[in-house]
Design brief:
This protein is α/β, with parallel strands linked by helices. Helix content is 29%, strand content 22%.
């Protein structure tokens, strides 16, 4: 059931086996899996059922120092479903190399290997309703009858997959409302942990109108986003004592995001062939987006970080086309987003493109791009983790009495070398295959500091509670248990020691599925039962 935390009877409600803090991209699938396997679960969301500007005030008071971090305010949401109410839904598994030892990226890598996570990617697809997704890129190309595009020793073409239903509050609506054993409490801000030695006995809640409550249960999972996880872990317990993990040297450190830059301009030499290779495709309601990435061989040979590229189509009517897509998608799903009608004249101006776009989609299942202002080369790069890149607490407090957040985001200058080298590889690749002429940004060629100064974050916040074999190397163990605790776990991208270039959400969901198996086994419940 879904209910306001202020109306929940904390005294008489059955004690949950697991308390999950955060009802977003990771917390919802994790809680649903646990409840489907017969565990009693309390899922806590700090915000309301639907996004409200007033609820964002707490996040808006967070501050970034160091490199600019717009995603600190634009990429975090306090509502049921969290950021899934606004994200694009891109799902990209981490490549095996991300889990390998890469001393040129970080002296301390993952204590897991790709095989430890791989099977949970399939489970992640299944639980979000994408069990029929094409796992093989070759299968996608065959279905679309796309021309071949070969890999080289430096460049690998690939597809990203995009969720059918991006808002998890919608995708899991029936489970959240009616799944036996699952209580979803909204407007339940967790502002502290109640401790008995190394054991978390309960979570302290700040409720509307200044009320307070404590929810006690068995295991506790923090799935409330990278920044909020690091904030909560740095607080003293509810009695004012330092938490058992308070002296962990890695707590709040190695904050990461992906570094996005525009690297140059693309001029197709054969526009039809270029479009056939790089236009997005939609099959059975799932979008497949063609991209290019740096091969693992090149990363090892030249000691570079993971990086990928895609093309940005600049158009004079991009906003109108975006609104038109929102409107059509809403109509197909039976829920119209009327905000898309905010500029009706702009929509009318884009109608001349609708017929060719519709014909291309109907005939080939491809999404035509309008680029009357050119095509830009966009890079998304992994960053090397740095200990001085940190999530900190300030001396000022928010409306819930919690210290406000400071994020000091630092980017290693040597990451620019990977961006330049990769951009040059892309240029060689596209020109040798007769696909396009590429003009690279002179500032990038010169390795100017202005490139990093203008770089964007990707709203992909990671780190701060990194995973390791021991507390000397991180905050959580390979089962995501916080060192120094008996029953406190972290689910989400906060545990990443390194990140690769991929959107972190899909791997975070997969690790949530892996953690669910661990918690199920701790409760003595079979982990082999079906999830749906």
């Amino acid at each position: 059931m879904i209910c306001q935390a202020a109306t929940y009877d904390f005294d008489t409600a059955p004690r949950p086996d697991v308390i999950v803090v955060g009802a977003g991209a990771v917390g919802i699938p994790l809680a649903v899996k646990l409840a489907r396997r017969g565990l009693r679960v309390a899922l806590l969301e700090a915000g309301p059922g639907k996004p409200r500007q007033a609820s964002q005030a707490v996040f808006e008071r967070a501050r970034a120092i160091g490199h600019a971090l717009p995603g600190l305010h634009l990429g975090r949401f306090r509502n049921l479903g969290g950021s899934t109410a606004f994200w694009g839904g891109q799902l990209v598994p981490f490549e095996p190399i991300v889990f390998e030892d890469r001393p040129w990226v970080s002296p301390a890598g993952w204590p897991l290997r790709h095989n430890d996570v791989a099977r949970h990617y399939d489970e992640a697809f299944d639980i979000i309703g994408m069990g029929d997704v094409m796992r093989s890129d070759a299968e996608v190309r065959a279905a679309l009858k796309m021309p071949p595009l070969e890999a080289t020793d430096t460049i690998q073409p690939f597809f990203t997959r995009w969720a059918r239903e991006t808002n998890f509050a919608v995708a899991f609506a029936e489970d959240l409302k009616a799944l036996p054993g699952l209580d979803v409490l909204i407007e339940a801000q967790v502002n502290g942990l109640e401790m008995d030695g190394a054991r978390v006995t309960g979570v302290s809640l700040a409720l509307p109108e200044g009320r307070r409550a404590v929810l006690r249960g068995g295991q506790v999972v923090l799935a409330n986003g990278t920044v909020e996880i690091a904030r909560l872990l740095q607080l003293p317990d509810t009695a004012g004592h330092p938490a058992p993990w308070a002296e962990n040297p890695w707590l709040g450190r190695c904050f990461m995001d992906h570094v996005d830059i525009f690297a140059g301009r693309i001029d197709p030499t054969d526009r039809k062939r270029f479009s056939d290779l790089f236009d997005n495709a939609v099959l059975s309601g799932i979008k497949y987006a063609p991209k290019l990435r740096l091969t693992a061989e090149a990363q090892k040979r030249d000691q570079m970080v993971e990086i990928s590229s895609h093309f940005v189509y600049a158009s004079s009517i991009s906003e109108s086309l975006s609104n038109l897509k929102i409107l059509v998608k809403g109509l197909l799903r039976g829920r119209v987003d009327w905000r898309a009608l905010g500029d009706p004249l702009g929509l009318l101006g884009s109608l001349r493109f609708v017929v060719p776009m519709a014909l291309r989609y109907i005939r080939y299942r491809r999404v035509m791009n309008v680029a009357d202002r050119g095509i830009l080369l966009r890079l998304t790069s992994e960053q090397r983790p740095r200990q001085d890149s940190r999530i900190l607490l300030s001396d000022t407090r928010d409306a819930f009495g919690m210290p406000e957040v400071l994020v000091d985001w630092r980017i290693a200058p040597e990451d620019l070398d990977t961006m330049l080298a990769f951009a040059r590889h892309i240029k060689t690749y596209l020109e040798e295959k007769g696909l396009a002429r590429v003009t690279l940004d002179p500032a990038l060629i010169a390795r100017s500091e202005s490139v990093l100064a203008a770089a964007d974050d990707a709203n992909h916040q990671m780190g701060g509670a990194r995973m390791a074999e021991s507390p000397e190397g991180g905050v959580v163990d390979p089962d995501c248990r916080v060192f120094g605790s008996e029953n406190l776990f972290v689910a989400g991208a906060a545990v990443y020691p390194t990140s690769g270039f991929a959107n972190p959400t899909f791997t975070a969901i997969a690790l949530g599925m892996r953690l669910a198996d661990h918690l199920i086994e701790k409760q003595g419940v079979s982990s082999n039962a079906p999830t749906a």
